[in-house]
Specification:
The chain is an alpha/beta fold. The protein has helices spanning 18-22, 38-51, 61-73, 77-85, 102-115, 139-150, 163-170; strands at residues 27-32, 56-60, 89-95, 120-125, 154-159. Helix 3 packs antiparallel against helix 4 (77-85).
């Protein structure tokens, strides 16, 4: 099993295997500061899911929301949501980096809620859940979104120390 090759104490050893979660109707949330490997881990899981013939879609939160808002303006929202629903796994990167307008938060919620217990979702965020109201201004909608995302999710904390910063510091560039 993939998880069994991980070092003791690794977050991957605490559950059956990230790919099995990514390919089931579960959720994975990767939380950590910038440069801690969240997107890298999510990309690897997406590639592994593709190798197992799973349909995968990777998008930033801003890109996903912009696509849905544009579809709404073109009177094609239902079609866009149907297109997104055909994927076995949706990976949403960078939730929390950019504040989300109310309509965007509604679309993000709709996307996540429609997938609940049917298909997989992975999310990366730099914010602890308690700070999500900074980017999703409606507290009720924020709470409902977090409730859907975290329900039976595997939450992985990637830490606070940036790999990029550490690499730069190691090279002697302060």
């Amino acid at each position: 099993m993939w998880a069994s090759r991980q070092p003791a104490g690794s977050p991957w050893t605490k559950w059956p295997g990230p790919l099995s979660v990514a390919c089931s109707s579960g959720a994975i949330v990767l939380i950590g500061e910038c440069g801690t490997g969240k997107t890298h881990l999510m990309t690897g899981l997406c590639v592994a899911a593709c190798r197992q013939k799973r349909r995968v879609r990777f998008a930033t939160a801003a890109g996903l929301i912009n696509e849905l808002v544009e579809a709404k303006h073109q009177m094609a929202l239902k079609r866009a949501l149907a297109r997104w629903s055909r994927y076995d796994l949706i990976a949403v990167d960078e939730v929390g980096y950019v504040p989300v307008a109310h309509i965007g938060a509604e679309f993000l919620f709709q996307m996540i809620a429609e997938r609940a217990e049917k298909a997989s979702v992975m999310v990366t965020t730099n914010l602890p859940f308690s700070e999500w109201t900074q980017v999703i201004p409606n507290p009720r909608l924020c709470k409902a979104l977090l409730d859907r995302i975290t329900d039976r999710a595997h939450i992985i904390e990637t830490g606070n120390e940036s790999y990029r910063f550490r690499r730069t510091a190691k090279a002697g560039n302060p």
